[in-house]
Structure formats: structure tokens, C-alpha cells
Amino acid sequence: MNRLKRAGIIGTGSCLPARVMTNQEFESFIDTSDEWIRSHTGICERRIADSDIATSDLSAEAAVRALDNAGLKPEDIDLIIVSTVTPDMMFPSTACLVQDKIGAVNAAAFDLGAACTGFLYGLTVAQNFVAAGYYKNILVIGAETLSKIADYSDRNTCVLFGDGAGAAVVSEVPEEYGILSTCIGADGSGGDLLKLPAGGSRIPASAESLRDRLHYIKMDGSKVYRFAAKAMEMAAETALKKCGLNKSDINYLIPHQANIRIIDSAVKRLKISEDKVYINIDKYGNMSAASVAVALDEASRKGLLKDDDIIVLVAFGGGLTWGSAVIKWKAIGR
Ligand code: UT7
Fold it and tell me: Where along the chain do its domains lie?
């Protein structure tokens, strides 16, 4: 039997829309305040895509930047995975649209739905394809245009979300580096806590579904909150244990950016010092599947990830889902 190969991230990229929407802007049309949003979430502003920009546009730009970072050409890519809850349309997949936009003519392509944990799910799939020797180079993209499904009349949800895309190229790397382990999980019994009810086969689009505002995000924020910090700790610990490491081995943590209070609580549980945690929720809000992908790219480009560092990516999200990846970092391909 062939030995499994070691998979790792050899390049990253991201793309954020230029338009900045501040907390103050919400004050003019819903009953909220900059003070409430900052103190309850840590968010100061978020990026919003123009009306003619869809998830595949942000994805393609992030992908091109990741390919450039990895020193690969579009033709070198064997598979594109787009993790998103805001595909351009029900089908074709956003991954197919990205394949065409960037000219990745040799790539298979599919979308993956795991909400905010989508990038971790995508990394896990890519790692296993590369480890098995089935594919050489895989583009994993986490991308969202949540502004298109946020209900701007619901103060409980609309202030939380932003748009963006992040991408990573996963390829074979030397044995001593790369993705040491991943952990993904789900608890479908919590599916009702965070969902977009209509537009699928359960409630197809109709005049009634539009009238009842069922094409927007619905969330039980406090129940998701209670699940979140515990899920991040559990996912990170499980992934660390799988590769024989523990919390004290973490050099840098890149968590899903849903709420600064959730991150703080996970950081306390994991007993990491705050300067080892990447935070960008203040600038972008919650970008669901794009959050960890964008944060990873920013941390890498800022030089915060050092060779030989143990990097832990961790997320939770709708589904409910959770996931984590432990990476021994090396700036390969950059
Ligand atoms: O990526 C995964 C998906 N989502 C999440 O991770 C979100 C997880 N949940 C959260 O981050 C928090 O639960 C929220 C930020 C959504 C809410 O914060 P909270 O501290 O848990 O507030 P709460 O739900 O306990 O609500 C407190 C009050 C309520 O008013 P009443 O009923 O006590 O009068 C809300 O109506 O805050 C009110 N509220 C707001 N007030 C001003 C909710 N949203 C707003 C708002 N501005 N934007």
C-alpha cells in the first residue's frame, strides 16, 4: 500500500469588497447604536459587496492571489472547493463559476456547505485528497456575500455580517510540515438555530415566502453563543490530540470571527495569551466561511506565522458544525 502523503498550505489569498459599512450607518435605519454593536460583538465595520458583485467574483480574485502566492498557474489546479452559504445561484456550483473565471481548465469543482465551518471542512477534504495521492493541487475557498441574505430590518442579525473571500492552495509538502491533523463534526439537531428557511426544496420561493421574509438569515443568537466557545475548545483539543499535541503547543490561533466575546471565552478555555490570537472581526464582522480563510491570509502576509509554528485554525457554525486544523507552518511557495 502507498504511504499517505503530507498535505500543507503553500499559498493564500483574500479579497474584500472596497465598500466599508460602519456601525453608525445602521443607526439611521434600525434601533441600534455603535456602542451596542461594539460592546456586544467587537465589530466596528464590515465590507459590503456592490449589487453587481456575487460570491464567485470575490472567490475568483482570492483564488488568483492564492495561486500567485503559491507560484502556481490556474492549469496546475486539480480541484476547486468553494465553501459558502451564499452561492451565486442554486446551480451551477459557485466552484464551477470560479473554475471558468480563473481558467482552471484541469480542475474538478464543487461547493461545500458547512456554514461558518466551511473552510475547515474544505481543508479537511483537500488534505485527504492530497494525502491519498488522488490530486496534487487543490484550491480551497471560503467565500460569502452575506449582505445579500442579511435582513436589514432585523437588528438581531444584520449588524453581524460582512462580505469577503479567502483562498488557500493545498498541495503535497515535506513530511515535517503541513496539516498535522483536522477535526470536523456536526450536530444536526441544532439546525434550526441558524438558517435561511426558504429558496430550497422545503420552502420553494413564492409570494408567501417573500412576504414572510423567509429568504433572510434567521438566528437564535444566544443559543448559538452558548454552543460556540465550548465547540471551539472541543474542536481544537480534538485536532491537537489527534496529532499528539496539546493546548500548550499552540503558537498561534486563528479562530472564526463571529463575536469577540466568543473568541475571548475560547481563548481563556484554551489558555492561550491574547497576543497569539488573530483578530479582525472589528474590520469585517462575521464573514461565515470566509472568516478563517481571510484571517489566515492576513496573518500570513503580515509575517505573524513563523516557520515551525504550530498554528490552530478553529471554527463553529450553522448546522450546527465545528472544525479545527493543526498546521506546522512553513512559508513554502511564498
Ligand atoms: O458564525 C456563527 C453564527 N453566529 C454567531 O456566532 C452569533 C452568536 N451570538 C452572538 O454573537 C450574540 O448572541 C449576539 C451578538 C447575536 C447578541 O448578543 P447578546 O449579548 O447575546 O444579546 P441578547 O441576544 O441577549 O439580546 C440582548 C438585547 C435584546 O433586547 P431585549 O430583548 O433584552 O430588550 C436584543 O433585542 O439586545 C437587543 N439587541 C440589540 N440592541 C441594539 C439585539 N441586537 C441589537 C442591536 N442593537 N443590533
Answer: 7-178, 179-328
Q: Which CATH number fits domain 7-178: 3.40.980.10, 3.40.47.10, 3.40.50.170, 3.50.50.60?
A: 3.40.47.10
Nearest atom (ligand 1) to Cα of 157: 16
Low-confidence ranges of the chain (pLDDT < 50): none
User: Given ligand 1 and candidates 21, 26, 40, which is best to mutate, with the most ligand atoms within 8 Å of its CB?
Assistant: 40
Name the residue among 216, 167, 219 with its Cα closest to residue 191. Answer: 219
The CATH number given to 179-328 is 3.40.47.10
Predicted confidence (pLDDT) per residue in 93-120, tens digit: 999 999 999 999 999 999 999 999 999 9
Q: Is 256 considered catalytic here?
A: yes
**pTM of the complete model beyond 0.90:** yes
